[in-house]
Amino acid sequence: MDADAGADLKNHVTRPPSDIDIELRMLMEAVYLKYNYDFRDYTGASQKRRVLTALRAMELDTVSALQARVMHDPAAFAQLLQFLTIPVTEMFRDPDYYAAIRKQVVPFLKTYPSLNVWVAGCSTGEEVYSLAILLKEEGLLERTQMYATDINPESLDAARRGVMPLDRMRLYTENYQKAGGTRAFSDYYTAAYGGALFDRALVENVTFADHSLATDTVFAETHFISCRNVMIYFNRRLQNRVLGLFHESLCHRGFLGLGSKESIDFSTYAERFEPLDKRMRLFRKVGT
Amino acid sequence: MSAIRVSGKDRNADQNADRNADLRAAVRGRRIEAVVIGASAGGVEALVALLPALPEDFALPVFCILHLPGDRESRLAELFDDRLPLPVREAADKESIEPGTVYFAGSGYHLSVEKDRTFSLSCEPPIHFARPAIDVLMESAADAYGPCRRPRRHPADRRQPRRGRRHGPDPRVRRLHGGAGPRGCPGPDHAAPRHRRLPTQSDFAPAAHLYPVAHVGDE
Q1: Strand A206-210 versus strand B35-40 pairing type
Q2: pLDDT digits (tens, 9 = 90+) for B48-63
Q3: Is A1 on the interface with B (CB under 8 A)?
Q4: Closest CB to B124 among A15, A86, A265
């Protein structure tokens, strides 16, 4: 079609940023300086989509207008935060992942007298309740301290409440069974008013806390960290920071679980985690 | 970026020749950096016809995305790896985009192209029930690569009324062009009296080019 089309592909010229890219950067800088939420190292394409969605929802014309609103109105920032974070998840999402934890990680966890488990980026709690159910069935829940962290206070509140939409229960039950669940899934929740309230005993030992992977540090030594589909929103620099945090937090030979399409191959920590189950994205810490 | 739509129906040779001329005119003077192909589930057949025609020394990255039902693992990259002279991979998060490589969007995640020429995945909700969604990949690629140089318009084109004005152009296609696409190019049935037929999709996408699948591979 065009013979020399790819000739200068390798040394492509970086174009000057468009107006909207400049505005986005200024917005993220303003949000960081004013509210100490650091979205500056989030990947561009997805962040841009979400800000544009927020613009439409908040009936504003430009990102600059959004910045002005957010600067002078904390409520507007709280609203924007719901767009910037992505609460799209389900219980026992990718059942094979949970089955793999049961089979390959739990036998090691059983050797510890007490356990610290960290669900990083727990969103509205689906993963926390899933893991709690799994640990309960494996007889580990009572000796486990779980940390469920997120940057979105509304998501954390929802996670604490533990009420899931009732219409999701069919899917979750199916996932639970595929994940190797040993009981009736409905044993774990009470259905009423269109919601499913999960057993409070599941989260008795769970600490829900505001923690930012972008700005905060390690708070505990952990044996297992599950951080699924969180780091895909981060650029390589922030991914490296987060993997550094996990490496520091994990105990000797501790376990790390990631989302089904996530990779550490392109990070500086590629050598410092070894795959336990590559397909299920389960890793073990190497070195100190 | 330029939108080219491919249809399954073949037409007569004259029309094909016209279309080839259109296509050449559309890409003349442009610096093309990547090819994005989006298709519905039936598009596998089209890709089987299209992709093996790529030469071994094809210099551009090719991004393919299909709207497949469900969250099942996609095996498309494996399927095409044996059939093409080019390397074929499923696009991975944070992977650098290599020229002369065919990438497929994996299942369950949206695929985007970033400005630093890497891929990123995301779990945003499905768009029109699709994840990965063609819109997400195309919009982000258009944004990352930017508009290519504006081709000179033929004066005759300028007089031609824009297609689909009554309905307004599809905003998605407009975004692909970044306002710099060729306008007034013939639609699918430009020989037929326009006012009598129902608007087709190309009426909503005035700048898109429509080509029969079998023929695109020959170009």
Answers
A1: unpaired
A2: 989 999 999 999 999 9
A3: yes
A4: A86
